[in-house]
Design a protein that fits this description.
The complex is a heterodimer of chains A (about 110) and B (about 110). In chain A, the strands form two sheets. In chain A, strands 2, 4, 5, 6, 9, 10 and 11 form a seven-stranded mixed beta sheet that branches. Chain A has a four-stranded antiparallel beta sheet with strand order 1-3-8-7, with no helix packed on it. Chain A has about 110 residues and is mainly beta. In chain B, strands 2, 5, 6, 9, 10 and 11 form a six-stranded mixed beta sheet that branches. Classes of the chains: A mainly beta (about 110), B mainly beta (about 110). At the A-B interface, strand 4, strand 5 and strand 10 of A face strand 6 and strand 10 of B.
């Protein structure tokens, strides 16, 4: 069964550095998402992406965040200048219209 | 505002006992509701969606619009049911999930 994959599984970075989290959605899916889960807290929506543009974003998704689908298979989340409070698990998800979302295994980001 | 509430952070039951994980939602329209499960060190997986009305791994959930609830139930808990359970809704016209805070289910031998 096809799965959403994410790399890396863990990332440690210094505050102020840029990070890129990568996701490969399921190949025939059209909608792509990033979610964040701070340790001990709930899963929070960051952004949705459809037809090569952002369709919705939350108030968490400020100017330091960006998403891209550079080559038709990867879907990336870039954090330009990381802050301590960006430390979290980041989940990618994808779906077809009207279907449930399928989640990746997550990338655990630690900002020091 | 759209909200999903899971009042219990932790629920412990003995193997073979019935289990009910509570979920209440706040939404003025007709949401689509889901239960996702996250086993230890694994990804979030879809367990149930209310429109399919299926029973998966013995779990069922009924949407009660009057009480705005979508509680997850299983008559006889198994040890392998121990996991984190998240209730989520999608508001009509959007494709983003709003998650509850999750309930950790521990099934004791």
């Amino acid at each position: 069964e096809p799965e959403v994959t994410q790399t890396p599984s863990h990332q440690v970075t210094q505050m102020g550095q840029e990070v890129i989290l990568r996701c490969v959605p399921i190949s025939n899916h059209l909608y792509f998402y990033w979610y964040r889960q701070i340790l001990g807290q709930k899963v929070e929506f960051l952004v949705s992406f459809y037809n090569n543009e952002i369709s919705e974003k939350s108030e968490i998704f400020d100017d330091q965040f960006s998403v891209e689908r550079p080559d038709g298979s990867n879907f990336t989340l870039k954090i330009r200048s990381t802050k301590l409070e960006d430390s979290a698990m980041y989940f990618c998800a994808s779906m077809m219209a009207g279907a449930p979302q399928y989640f990746g295994p997550g990338t655990r980001l630690l900002v020091l | 505002a759209q909200r999903v509430t899971q009042p219990e952070k932790l629920l412990s039951v003995f193997k073979g006992a019935p289990v009910e994980l509570k979920c209440n939602y706040s939404y003025s329209g007709s949401p689509e509701l889901f239960w996702y499960v996250q086993y230890s060190r694994q990804r979030l997986q879809l367990l149930l969606r209310h429109i399919s009305r299926e029973s998966i791994k013995g779990f069922t959930a009924d949407l009660n619009k009057g009480e705005t609830s979508f509680h997850l139930k299983k008559p006889f808990a198994q040890e392998e049911d121990s996991a984190m359970y998240y209730c989520a809704l999608i508001a009509s016209g959007t494709y983003k999930y709003i998650f509850g805070t999750g309930t950790r289910l521990k099934v004791l031998a």
